[in-house]
């Protein structure tokens, strides 16, 4: 049975869901195969278990008791399913390898050993994304904003509203979320729900009872001002404040180098000769005149911290996690040099009004760029703390000396912290790993140095750069580090997927809190579970409502025009690439689910739950079509992990 025919747009199971699929149907996806077996699972648990024990005892034991697999109740196991590769969702080089392997197997079909198989593993690189519309296909922004076009007849965009309206594809839904919530849709004719608010006379309607006459961007802050952007482009922004700090740090560094070379100095004489110049940490006597008020302080203890997540940790997702109980949120990683150049990286810094404790994470390798960037955002953004990324394992970042590479350069890291602390008026935090190389932990050697230079919070991900996710997070080592960090709070990060995990880590360590990353991607309601200390057996319809809320957040952030809808779809698919790993509580034989355990193939308690459990990228696209309408003819989405091409 095709999953899209069994689940309506609103997430309800249709009557057709109970009709078996004809046996002569060509290729079937995982969701189709699972739906066929759903009818067989309507028997009672005891009778079904007995049937499995009698007829498939060896298969059942092989599946449900395999090491590294989650324990699924017997009546939900899909015992005879054999996954196949869906060639539409593999990279071209993999398609060529499959073709070559099939040709080789066909030539040697009569020979032993049996045919070779290609195993998909690892990540897809150079992933393609949806192409943007050409200028000639887009309506001019001046028409949408109801003002005169500055380019006149030279404008390359469309100006014929009637022609655009007649050629416009059908709306993807009857109701525009932006018009319903704000009283006016700023995307006017280009909105994919435009017929809700465009009159017969082709006018963009306004609900005066709701509309307040302010732009949609009012709900978020940290938009880069055009004047500031021009100054950055022309390299005319005033960084004199940072320059003074950097000069002082350089003087101190050169003085330390002289002492290290064995040239003894009379410290008393040195102090007397430099009465107006301090050697050491920057003071406010001659360099920086801080405001009369003290620097802002945050009580981080016992708060739930949503980790800064590249790509998937976008503003709509953070809003979703805030609604489920996250206390602290942080922007996606922003590269300091890109911010200093006024590039589009600034979009990552946007903060929603619901994010009451919000931080900006910066990534950089040099003292000057990180210090200047700290000054730049301090003067132009609203945030509560800044986080230094010392944990990013990406090769491109690492080779530049950024991210995890900073852990191997403690002196430079100290200088970066000193420089940034001198220009910031908010707390400064550091996120790092256990170390760079697997089996060689070095975080404990950095903690005393970071504490000495004034870091306000340290977060440790319990894995090394080389290790990635091949092993469990080392919470014993996190505990050792938390005992060293007595004066500065330390948060642990890694493998938190339930309230039991969080309670266990906090009760058995000296950590002051937990940072949650993959656990929030798999189930954003984990924050509610931790605060209420319960396992939430969330229904498939509730999970669909969660996805629908993410989509609405996406419309408010990226827009409801074609580009905004497709951007929302892309990030929804990225989110589904994690959320499909969630195993419903009612399906599990042993609660809670562990983050390192994979489920065997199983059916859900209804067709929608089954569809949401699919690891096949094709099924994620079906879910996106339930919320965002059909994909375009040339739509492309290559999953991050090659294994998601199995169906």
TrEMBL record:
<feature type="region of interest" description="Disordered">
    <location>
        <begin position="1"/>
        <end position="65"/>
    </location>
</feature>
<dbReference type="GO" id="GO:0003723">
    <property type="term" value="F:RNA binding"/>
</dbReference>
<comment type="similarity">
    <text>Belongs to the dus family. Dus3 subfamily.</text>
</comment>
<feature type="zinc finger region" description="C3H1-type">
    <location>
        <begin position="175"/>
        <end position="199"/>
    </location>
</feature>
<dbReference type="InterPro" id="IPR018517">
    <property type="entry name" value="tRNA_hU_synthase_CS"/>
</dbReference>
<feature type="compositionally biased region" description="Basic and acidic residues">
    <location>
        <begin position="33"/>
        <end position="42"/>
    </location>
</feature>
<dbReference type="GO" id="GO:0006397">
    <property type="term" value="P:mRNA processing"/>
</dbReference>
<feature type="zinc finger region" description="C3H1-type">
    <location>
        <begin position="134"/>
        <end position="162"/>
    </location>
</feature>
<keyword id="KW-0288">FMN</keyword>
<keyword id="KW-0863">Zinc-finger</keyword>
<dbReference type="InterPro" id="IPR035587">
    <property type="entry name" value="DUS-like_FMN-bd"/>
</dbReference>
<keyword id="KW-0521">NADP</keyword>
<keyword id="KW-0285">Flavoprotein</keyword>
<dbReference type="GO" id="GO:0050660">
    <property type="term" value="F:flavin adenine dinucleotide binding"/>
</dbReference>
<protein>
    <recommendedName>
        <fullName>tRNA-dihydrouridine(47) synthase [NAD(P)(+)]</fullName>
        <ecNumber>1.3.1.-</ecNumber>
    </recommendedName>
</protein>
<keyword id="KW-0819">tRNA processing</keyword>
<dbReference type="InterPro" id="IPR013785">
    <property type="entry name" value="Aldolase_TIM"/>
</dbReference>
<dbReference type="Pfam" id="PF25585">
    <property type="entry name" value="zf-CCCH_DUS3L"/>
</dbReference>
<feature type="compositionally biased region" description="Polar residues">
    <location>
        <begin position="44"/>
        <end position="61"/>
    </location>
</feature>
<keyword id="KW-0862">Zinc</keyword>
<dbReference type="Pfam" id="PF01207">
    <property type="entry name" value="Dus"/>
</dbReference>
<keyword id="KW-0507">mRNA processing</keyword>
<dbReference type="InterPro" id="IPR000571">
    <property type="entry name" value="Znf_CCCH"/>
</dbReference>
<comment type="function">
    <text>Catalyzes the synthesis of dihydrouridine, a modified base, in various RNAs, such as tRNAs, mRNAs and some long non-coding RNAs (lncRNAs). Mainly modifies the uridine in position 47 (U47) in the D-loop of most cytoplasmic tRNAs. Also able to mediate the formation of dihydrouridine in some mRNAs, thereby regulating their translation.</text>
</comment>
<feature type="region of interest" description="Disordered">
    <location>
        <begin position="101"/>
        <end position="124"/>
    </location>
</feature>
<feature type="compositionally biased region" description="Basic and acidic residues">
    <location>
        <begin position="9"/>
        <end position="18"/>
    </location>
</feature>
<keyword id="KW-0520">NAD</keyword>
<dbReference type="GO" id="GO:0102265">
    <property type="term" value="F:tRNA-dihydrouridine47 synthase activity"/>
</dbReference>
<feature type="domain" description="C3H1-type">
    <location>
        <begin position="175"/>
        <end position="199"/>
    </location>
</feature>
<keyword id="KW-0677">Repeat</keyword>
<keyword id="KW-0479">Metal-binding</keyword>
<keyword id="KW-0560">Oxidoreductase</keyword>
<feature type="domain" description="C3H1-type">
    <location>
        <begin position="134"/>
        <end position="162"/>
    </location>
</feature>
<dbReference type="GO" id="GO:0008270">
    <property type="term" value="F:zinc ion binding"/>
</dbReference>
């Amino acid at each position: 049975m095709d999953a899209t025919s069994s689940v309506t747009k609103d997430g309800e199971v249709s009557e057709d869901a109970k009709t078996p699929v004809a046996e002569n149907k060509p290729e079937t996806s995982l969701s189709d195969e699972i739906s066929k077996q759903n009818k067989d699972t309507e028997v009672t648990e005891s009778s079904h278990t007995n049937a499995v024990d009698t007829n498939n005892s060896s298969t059942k034991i092989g599946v449900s008791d395999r090491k590294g697999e989650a324990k699924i109740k017997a009546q939900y196991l899909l015992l005879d399913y054999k996954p196949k590769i869906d060639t539409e969702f593999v990279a071209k080089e993999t398609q060529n390898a499959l073709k070559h392997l099939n040709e080789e197997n066909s030539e040697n079909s009569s020979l032993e050993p049996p045919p070779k198989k290609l195993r998909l593993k690892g990540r897809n690189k150079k992933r393609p994304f949806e192409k943007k519309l050409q200028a000639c296909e887009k309506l001019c922004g001046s028409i949408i904003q109801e003002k005169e076009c500055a380019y006149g007849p030279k404008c390359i965009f469309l100006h014929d509203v009637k022609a655009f309206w007649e050629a416009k594809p059908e709306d993807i839904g009857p109701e525009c979320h932006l018009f319903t919530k704000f009283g006016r849709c700023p995307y006017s004719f280009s909105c994919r729900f435009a017929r809700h608010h465009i009159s017969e006379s082709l006018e963009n309607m306004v609900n005066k009872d709701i509309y307040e006459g302010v732009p949609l961007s009012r709900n978020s802050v940290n938009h880069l001002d055009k004047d500031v952007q021009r100054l950055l482009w022309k390299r005319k922004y005033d960084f004199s404040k940072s320059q003074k700090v950097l000069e002082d740090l350089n003087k101190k560094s050169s003085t330390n180098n002289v002492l290290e070379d064995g040239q003894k100095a009379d410290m008393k004489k040195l102090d007397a000769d430099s009465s107006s110049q301090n050697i050491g940490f920057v003071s406010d006597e001659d360099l920086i005149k801080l405001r009369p008020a003290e620097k802002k302080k945050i009580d981080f203890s016992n708060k739930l911290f949503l980790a800064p997540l590249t790509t998937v940790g976008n503003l709509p997702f953070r809003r979703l996690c805030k609604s489920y109980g996250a206390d602290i949120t942080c922007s996606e990683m922003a590269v300091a040099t890109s911010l200093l150049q006024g590039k589009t990286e600034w979009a990552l810094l946007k903060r929603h009004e619901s994010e009451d404790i919000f931080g900006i994470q910066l990534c950089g390798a040099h003292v000057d760029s990180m210090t200047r960037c700290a000054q730049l955002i301090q003067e132009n953004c609203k945030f509560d703390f800044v986080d230094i990324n010392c944990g990013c394992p990406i090769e491109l970042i690492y080779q530049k000396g950024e991210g995890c590479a900073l852990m191997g350069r403690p002196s430079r890291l100290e200088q970066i912290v000193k420089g940034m602390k001198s220009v910031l008026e908010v707390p400064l935090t550091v996120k790092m790993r256990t170390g760079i190389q697997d089996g060689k932990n070095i975080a404990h050697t950095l903690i005393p140095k970071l504490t000495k230079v004034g870091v306000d919070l340290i977060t440790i991900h319990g894995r090394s750069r080389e290790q990635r996710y091949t092993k469990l997070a080392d919470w014993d080592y996190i505990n050792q580090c938390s005992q060293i960090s007595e004066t500065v709070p330390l948060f642990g990060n890694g493998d938190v997927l339930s309230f039991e995990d969080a309670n266990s880590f906090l009760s058995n360590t000296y950590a002051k809190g937990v940072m949650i990353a993959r656990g929030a991607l798999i189930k954003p309601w984990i924050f509610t579970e931790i605060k209420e200390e319960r396992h939430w057996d969330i229904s498939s319809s509730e999970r669909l409502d969660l996805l629908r809320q993410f989509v609405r957040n996406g419309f408010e952030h990226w827009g409801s025009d074609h580009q905004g809808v497709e951007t929302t779809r892309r990030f929804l698919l990225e989110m589904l690439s994690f959320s499909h790993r969630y195993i419903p509580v009612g399906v599990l034989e042993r609660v809670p689910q562990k983050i390192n355990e994979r489920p065997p193939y199983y059916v859900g308690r209804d067709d929608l739950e089954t569809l949401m459990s699919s690891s096949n990228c094709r099924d994620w696209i079906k879910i996106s079509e339930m919320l965002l309408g059909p994909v375009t003819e040339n739509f492309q989405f290559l999953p991050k992990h090659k294994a998601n091409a199995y169906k």
